[in-house]
Amino acid sequence: MKPVVIFRFAEAEGPGLLATFLDQHHIPWCLIQVDSSDSLPVSISAYSGVVLMGGPMSVNDDLPWMLPMLHLIQQAVGEDIPLLAHCLGAQLLSKALGGVVIKNAVKEIGWSEVIVSNNDTARLWFGDIGRFNGFHWHGETFSLPAGAVHMLASQYCENQAYALGKHLALQCHIEMTAEMVRSWCDIGADEIMSASGSPAVQQSEVIRQTLPLHCFFLSKVAQQVYAQWIKGLRS
Question: What pTM does this model have?
Answer without folding.
Answer: 0.97
